[in-house]
């Protein structure tokens, strides 16, 4: 969480009290920042002939992100969140915990949200909640030698593919208006994502990822 913590501190320093600004109906905003994705993994077992209880754990990653939003009313906004692909490392868990790195995968999770912003448009602090969908797109899956040793000893290098999925997402955040055009934003998103992994060795694995996202950013009102 160190990268996100530093970004939060930077946003706080910039957020000097220079007067609130309305974020009202018909207004566009753009925001850039950083986000950390942490999968909350509930791993199923890799199918036979893998060792019973063969599971996976997945590491977090931090990348730049950007978003665009449009205020439908004074309190309701639509937001599209985009960013650079996140690179996650896969590790052995369960019966194979401690075997180390099994591979890597890149994830691109564009998210569309409808938000409700509390208080009046001229308020300096505006908490908000949101709900929407995330499309989890996976690419560049790369297996390690350990993955091959576990899944198909003596066979060719094992590759794998993670299925792309659509997930429901919930959001909570806070906007701090710095001046008439600039604002700071911190947000939390929880997605409910289940997917499936197919291995070239013929095995499969169901896995619940349920990623949590913490982001901080600086935005501009048009």
UniProtKB/TrEMBL annotation:
<dbReference type="InterPro" id="IPR011250">
    <property type="entry name" value="OMP/PagP_B-barrel"/>
</dbReference>
<protein>
    <submittedName>
        <fullName>Outer membrane beta-barrel protein</fullName>
    </submittedName>
</protein>
<feature type="signal peptide">
    <location>
        <begin position="1"/>
        <end position="22"/>
    </location>
</feature>
<dbReference type="Pfam" id="PF03922">
    <property type="entry name" value="OmpW"/>
</dbReference>
<keyword id="KW-0732">Signal</keyword>
<dbReference type="InterPro" id="IPR005618">
    <property type="entry name" value="OMPW"/>
</dbReference>
